[in-house]
Amino acid sequence: MNLNKKNILLALSSLAVISCSDIDNQFPLGGTLTEEQLQETNELLPERVNATFSGMFTMMGEPDGVYHSGTRADDFGFIMAALSLDAEGADLGMTNNDYNWFSTACELSSRNANYANPYIRYVLPYRQIGVANEIIKAYPEDTKDPKAINQIAQARAMRAFDYLSLAPYFQFGYSTSKDKLCVPLLESDTDYTNNPRATVEKVYETIIADLNYAIDNLEGYDRAGDKSRIDLNVAYGLRARAYLNMGEYAKAAADAKKAQEGYTPASKEEVSKPAFCDLNEHNWIWAIDITDAMANIVYGYPTASSWLSPFSGQGYAAATQTTPFINKLLYDKISDTDVRKGWWLDEDCKSDNMETLSWTDGDKTYRGNDIAPLKIKDVKEPYLPYTNIKFGMKSGVGSILNNNDWPLMRVEEMILIEVEGLAKSGKEGDARTLLTDFLKTYRDPNYTIPAERSFEDEIWFQRRVELWGEGFFTNDAKRLGKPIVRFHDDKKNSNFPDAFIFNIKADDGWLNLRFPQTELDNNLAVIDNEGGAQPVSGQNPELRDGVTD
């Protein structure tokens, strides 16, 4: 998994918005354009900046978007990053076989500076930041053009999302580490060869400034049903996430409430079968739109469908028995009356959520729980206990079109942010009422707040169940100062492969990502993270997290 030594600077410079021959004659190749050149180019060929603007969203889930090699089954944009982040945590496991492209995340060898997995996760946000910066620079600072202002607002919100995709993973939480080094910031005049890491506080100042601008300038914008674009709800939701990370709980609750406007959670009936695959689901606020054309790139393998849905007829995970599963410790804590327990198979590979499904193989159709043990050569291996069936198949069970969309933001997440924000800003009574109403109405009619764990841990438990597989675990654990707990005392209580059975202390330096070798080679001002060591099987059996105890 060693990297091709690509220069991040060259990757960023390649994002210039012009490439036609008549423009190339004016501006030499090999460097970024000045703001005046970009503005002149936009006046000559405005479709160029429009194309760059559209590309900023497409690259979010672009298959084979980093290496362009057609050989990597783990190169599929920010969805890949979400899967990796959860695989580094406690709740999502995968088999340890030769087909698991995410083994580096599962075993946390993802701190190797020369590995492709962490490189992809680092370079993607910076490439997108580069695109956002080009869009912002393409217009005069004092522009009054409504379309230009809208594009700038969305670009700045996207840039904030990109920094939120980096900051929590290169340093510990804001409350303990705001003065410590985080990641470099890319400004229009940045010298990329000498760009030191900004502090956590400075990175979040940049995030909040970008989102403030977006919120101030997206009022009234109608994205006409295109959930891949950023509107006011999305901007409020991103700022709610940022404030939650910063411990600004009242502000997080207020923004999360605004982000919910116009959206309702998925009903118990809607999530009592595999779903989470179509941006038209009414509870989705923001999404990655995987088009049919994108799904067909590289034989359809590098997409969310191929890895997270066990129902793909031409998927990598289903064919190699590497579909992610839930940690048994978490699964056992879910109430039997909670519809979400059916998002995973039980120890006997059964789930009520399979009842309405069918998979046809040749002249025979398998229905319901008979799908789990089904083996189709080169298509599907039998499911393992606790395999997730949360993520359905947009084009139908057994489809070879891996066009599942991806939820970047759901209204349920915003409700849970509001609950946490209220609880931690002196309004725990309101938070308890909101959480109870949400769960009784949409997930578990018998829900009551349990007495055996703190309310703070109950909120985290609900986030871990509701947002499982969507990339939130690592950020939550770090901001809450929680350990990674995959087993208790004896390995026998774990359903993780032996190599992945370990616990990690909340302050272990290994939890902070390392910088790719290309960044260390080309940005001489970067000081890498250090501390900790790659976890080994069976370590820290005494650790508990307050949820799975």
What does this structure look like?
With 549 residues, this protein is mainly alpha-helical. The chain has helices spanning 8-13, 21-24, 35-44, 46-58, 77-87, 103-106, 116-137, 146-164, 167-170, 174-177, 200-217, 232-246, 249-259, 292-295, 304-308, 316-320, 328-331, 411-423, 428-442, 455-466, 473-480, 517-522, and strands spanning 92-93, 284-288, 325-326, 358-361, 364-367, 406-410. Strands 1-3 form a two-stranded antiparallel ribbon. The protein has a two-stranded antiparallel sheet with strand order 2-6. Residues 1-31 have low confidence and may be disordered.
Write the layout of secondary structure elements.
Blueprint: H1 8-13, H2 21-24, H3 35-44, H4 46-58, H5 77-87, E1 92-93, H6 103-106, H7 116-137, H8 146-164, H9 167-170, H10 174-177, H11 200-217, H12 232-246, H13 249-259, E2 284-288, H14 292-295, H15 304-308, H16 316-320, E3 325-326, H17 328-331, E4 358-361, E5 364-367, E6 406-410, H18 411-423, H19 428-442, H20 455-466, H21 473-480, H22 517-522
Antiparallel strand pairs: 1-3, 2-6, 4-5
